[in-house]
User: What shape does this take?
Amino acid sequence: MSSKILSLQGKGLKLDTRADIEPFLKDVDASLLEEIHLGGNTLGVEASQALGEFLAKATSLKVANFADIFTGRLISEIPLALGAICDALIDKTSLVEINLSDNAFGGRSVDPMIPFLTHNRSFSVLKLNNNGLGPAGGAAIADALLQSALLSKKEGKQSNLRTIICGRNRLENGSASAWAAAIAAHGLLEEVRMPQNGIRMEGIIALAGGLAKNANLGHLDLQDNTFSAGGSKAMAEALSSWANLHTLNFSDCVLSDDGEVPVLIETLMKGSNPKLRDLLLQNNNLEAKTFALLAQGIPSNLAALKSLELQWNDVDDDDENLQELADLLKARGGKLFVSDEDEEEDEEEEEEREEEEAKEEKESAAQPSLEEKKPAAIADKATDALADMLSKVEIR
Assistant: This one.
């Protein structure tokens, strides 16, 4: 393993005490460390304190991956353990990514993260997925991020934050306004993923206002929240803010309450986002009129689109517009998904591509390189020349 990377990923270790974790740290030069991956293990308070002391010596750390490190821990343990780790990261100016996903913090364990999220203004990627934050915990996180943005502005600096991933956290409407304020304040976000949070129309409207302040947004995922007509309209108004948008996931968002064409799709079909490459609209009560509009608008207004997902809408297998869309995307090297079978076919094709690539790599590895061939070729020529000379020698 590289001296720059420390990984215990997925080893299933139960590290309770200093003595448990120190064997994995003692031979690592913290000053050289750039990445640490501890996911899939479980850390107790003492082990986390020892880890914090180790991290305090790290001066080049870029990636801190602490997803899924508290499985089986008591709610009384997690704040102390989390605090020891987060406090050690506050001053890391080299930090690029922090991942604390898949840890069951709940709202009660949020406080130890607040100083880090407020005062470390170096990291650009924040991953907090599946933490059970709830509305109160989510609002506390968002408020910390807002304070971070305001402190940067006060210092005359731009925010470094570019990616927020905070899905499956039950954020709901209760934290949506706080998130909208934080997102707006950072202003340079390129990727925001907040799926499966139970956010409803009023919260979506607030988020749309905050997201619209981020002109560089390229990837937006709000799957499995509830837009309804008001949320769809608010997001439609925000679409023109994102000239670089390439991926949009609004599946399971109730874009249409009554089968009418959602205003959001009408806006997309007018060319609001010409760089859009992947559009996910599964399970949105979409009907034939919407498919007709997609078939009409995509050829000229979404020239970059390659993947369109429409599963679990009101799809008629004989719909000519869907066949037209399928042919168009196939000609572009892309795909239309309207059923589970399409997804299975895509997975099979991907597996076949991977197998073919692996086979080519194996064959390539088996073939001698040009450098390896040179000596052999020279030797062959020398042998031929010697044989030719010998054939001309007469023995008397």
In short: The longest strand covers residues 5-7.
